[in-house]
Write a structure and sequence with these properties.
The chain is an alpha/beta fold. Helices cover 36% and strands 22% of the residues. A five-stranded mixed β-sheet has the order 2-3-5-4-6. Strands 7-9-10 form a three-stranded parallel β-sheet, covered by helices on one side. Strands 1-8 form a two-stranded antiparallel ribbon.
Amino acid sequence: MSPVLADPPGDCCFKGVKHAGTPVGKSIEIAGVPTYISEPTSHIADGPKKIILYLSDVFGPFFLNNQLIQDYFAGHAGYLVLGIDYFFGDGIYLHLDQEGFDREAWIANAREKSREAFPRWLEAVRTTYGTDAKYFTVAAFAHPAWLNEDHFKNITNFTTKDNRTFALGLRSTFPLESRRRAEDILMETKATYHISVFSGVLHGFATRCNLEIENERWAKEEAARQIIGWFTRFSS
């Protein structure tokens, strides 16, 4: 069994601050799966369609913070953003104050549903948006969980343009020794990658930080800017 590098979700994955703002995207269904869609404004949407598939944290793509991030990717770089709701309207934020809530049962159920839903959703995205869409295997994630060494070793097995960027804070489920091991693997496989580590922020900062704290706000915004830059580098 491949050694674990990023642990399963802990308490830090279920905490955070709800942000303020007005989302501009809308809800659609793709292959029977609820999906948040945020479209680029017309003045930056010229050329081949570029699509970001937004795989949210346990709060789901319709949680306000995640909606605003998806809108940022659409509005600032011309991407069509599709956020699959593999929780089917049952994001964890609906249960945070629920007495006697069985979090482990919720996780198990959510994983089962997502395993069934994601492949057909992805195939439907390809069918719906056609050959004029530019699909590229550039990925980015912040404060990950549930990763083992094989996830990193297999990166170069997809395509030579399967590139990864990571944004990490302190007290992550992806601790320092695991990050260093992951980077060793990426170097061994000659993958193209970028890692950013932000001080003074906790796990979840890229989506659920306290915006009243300048360092947390800057880290969140900088992580989003770096992701846009990373995607644009390989999709231009």
